[in-house]
Amino acid sequence: MIVLCAGPTLLFTRYYADKKPRQFYACSACRDRKDCPFFQWADERVSEEKRKLRQQINAMQQPTTSRDQYTKRLEKFKKLPSDKERRFCNSCSELLVAEEWSKHSTHNVTMGIKLQLLDTPTKLLRPLEDEKTHAQYLFTDDTTQFLVNVFEKLHLSHVICIGTPRIHEYITNSRTDMKSFLLDIDYRYAQFFPPATYQRFNMFNFHFFGGHVGKTHLSRFLATEPSNVAFILDPPFGGIADILASTVKTLWALARDCVVGPMDGEFPTFWVFPYFLEDHVTKAMPTLKMLDYKVEYENHVLYKNAKKRRSPVRLFTNVAPEKVKLPASEGYRFCKKCRRYVGEENKHCIKCNSCTSKDGRTYTHCDQCNACVKPGRVHCAICDCCQPPAHDCTKAKPKTECHICGQQDHKRKSCPQRMSKIPTPASVKRKSENADDRESPKKRMKTEMKRPRKASKHKKQKMTMTRKQNQKT
After folding, report:
1. What's the pTM?
2. Which of 227, 243, 254, 231 is nearest to 161 (CA)?
């Protein structure tokens, strides 16, 4: 197992058109090589020196302050007599006590930190908004309150917040009938939350940075009320859905172990993801269904309330849609035919027998396509589908094809040649072109035997000694 600063790596597969797929290891948290340049082929042999160097680099990238030190600093920080003495370094994202002020004199420091602000660290810490690593976008107050109200109506008393610190804050500070446990990869939350309610966690490889201790804290939390546990996760939108689904199912298994008696069903789960990735979510977890509720973020330019079109982020859940009541104050209503709550723009189509809108606009039905399409699109006889009025028919839309065999009726995951030894047409052509240039093993052995071999150093010394002896005689 290869371990990096973000925990164990993931095993990926790279596909080629003219040769067999090849597996490699890469970082589980960073999707950009600039953030984590690690790359290693699965069949590559690594020297001991390289492994030691990798361990040194991982140690350098870990937080310099331990969990116990963070806890002691928070206690000392709270005991300061006035707000003027409480300072926070924005450059280092650390709470500062008096003896540390001089070390941060040139940094961006906020003074006068009130004790109430320590209960809401998301309003104190600067979000890590790098798209391909953290993508730390925070729910608005309306979205946070709606989700917590849903938990209340479903009689869920314990919530596991995976990458949702705003939900954890709200439950901890405002609800006495609920308890929350935060799993987040951001180590900065260790300054504010105790180990019993927060553990640093990587949702892409199910890695607890606290090791067995971190997993034990979560198990203790689940054991208090395992039958009324809910899971909510807000992963980066570029994350692989299959990997995230595996993490959710592992958490389910961990919760089942805490239930007294047999438990084979699923736990209430809420997955926040864009509507245009619906196929990825439902394929990874078929029991999850997309709701019409539009999740909004406080610190995102596009994914918040806009005049023309609202956020494309939706809520996927395995709870029955009719049980999740969406707020009527925001225009949501209940469709009796679909048995679920829908947005005010989502009109029921009689021909499709469904409320078909997904992107926040009212769809129109096309009889030729036999489906509802986005507004403004017209049916094109050449393209045989609905397209924008000003589209160019000559520019054919590239069809998705298998990366291995080139066929268009399947993708590479279901390709029959994926793991088989059947050669692809491209590989057969390449082999036939290079067949004349290759030597057979017998021919290669004969040529090697004919080549003159260089004498070794020991033989050279022996030959010089015999020559000198012959000259003396």
Report:
1. 0.81
2. 231
